[in-house]
Amino acid sequence: MEKLISDVINSNSQYWIQKRNTHVINVYDDFKVRDALKVLASNKILSVPVIERATGDYLGFIDMNDILHSIIDSFLANNSQQDGHDWVRLCHDVSVSEKFANQPVSVLINQSKKDFFIPVDESGSIHQLIDEIFSKGIHRVIVVGEDANTKGIISQTDILEFILENRDEIKGADFEKPIGQLKDLVEKDVITINAEVMTIQCYYVMMKHSKQSIALTGKHGEIIGNLSITDLRGLDPENFELLLSPAIDFWNKTNSKSKICVVPSSTTFKEIINILYKNRLHRLWLSSKEEGGCYGTVTIGNIMKYFSRDQHEVIRRNSLSSSSGSLNLNSSSNSISKKPLTPVKICPIVEEK
Fold it and tell me: Where is the CBS domain (predicted)?
């Protein structure tokens, strides 16, 4: 973890060679929102750096989270809460609104307050990057060199690759332990919603509760889908009305080649990281016979927080938790006590091959 960022991004591993040779897509600050959305949609990406045309400096990132927050905040500011949320009118207005589409993209930078722009020095260590940046919820950063020139972009997913590549050198991490025994990695405060609810309403609930995802449940309460910002990939003003469809239909359309990923609590930490990295996922749902079904999630953000701790603290806390042999859902005063989610009935179990 003490390797320098510069040594990692300039290494000769195939992963980093390919990443260095990949063109970084960006937009200028005077681009219109409509143009930026088309760039995101055509490249099927969720985030793009914004560059000031006059100076060539990076100003920050704009992502689908910023756009969604901007749209919903603007709509709610102009419509009485007592009248309910006229999402049909919202999506129609967004699709045809020249005012929204013709805004300079710079005004939407970090509208969601979720992913602050933080350039990092390549002379810092990977551990510093995790501890000071990624564990705080930042998803990606611009790396700059001593000459102040941009060296590239590094993301949380890149850190997963680093962890897998350097697993044998990382001391104190319980890679072989079942995820159910690593209580600090499990997020239990999850939100579920009926899968037939309008998609835009689901995103509003996510935004209201500051969540990155929401589980979609079927007629019997079983989890049949998982809606997140990732599902907005490819959306542009011309097809915003897709957000009016039932959430499960929208999810199936945007996830035609993948299904919700549910793993048993006996899955090892190493396998969890592998599954997230190989499938380019941000979270996995956990199932447990003892808990009666799905009872929480493990996210890349949780993993970043885990590795942000001092290694001696990791060893100490894990040795204490291992004595019980199982996950205590209410062991912390900050734990949120909730009934376990309804048992998963049709979600496939993802296993490492």
Answer: 20-78, 111-169, 255-314
Whether residue 278 sits in one domain with residue 229: yes
Bridge partners, 50 (sequence order):
27, 60
Residue 345 inside a domain? The answer is: no
pLDDT mean over 200-222: 85
> Which H or E run includes 150?
strand 150-155
Predicted confidence at residue 195, as pLDDT, reads: 92
Q: Are residues 107 and 220 in the same domain?
A: no
Question: Amino acid letter at 272?
Answer: I
Q: Which two tokens stand for residue 305?
A: 């927080």
Read off φ and ψ for residue 226, nearest 5 degrees. Answer: -150, 105
Q: Which domain holds residue 197?
A: 179-322
Judge if 143 and 193 occupy the same domain: no
* C-alpha distances out from residue 200 to 37, 62, 98, Å: 18, 20, 21
Q: Are residues 199 and 62 in the same domain?
A: no
Are 244 and 198 within 8 A, CB to CB?
yes
351 CB-contact burial (10 Å; exposed 0-12 / middle 13-18 / buried 19+):
exposed
- What pLDDT does residue 337 have? 26
pLDDT value of position 345: 30
pLDDT digits (tens, 9 = 90+) for 146-160: 887 888 889 999 999
Asked whether 95 and 238 are in contact (CB, 8 A), the reply is: yes
User: Is 66 inside any structural domain?
Assistant: yes
Identify whether residues 44 and 159 lie together within a single domain.
yes
The CA-atom distances, in angstroms, between 299 and each of 79, 162, 213, 221, 287 are 35, 17, 10, 23, 15
**Does residue 82 surpass a pLDDT of 80?**
no
The Cα–Cα gap between 188 and 298 comes to 9
pLDDT at 166 over 60: yes
Angstrom distance (rounded) from CA 27 to CA 240: 21
| CATH number of the domain where residue 105 is located | 3.10.580.10
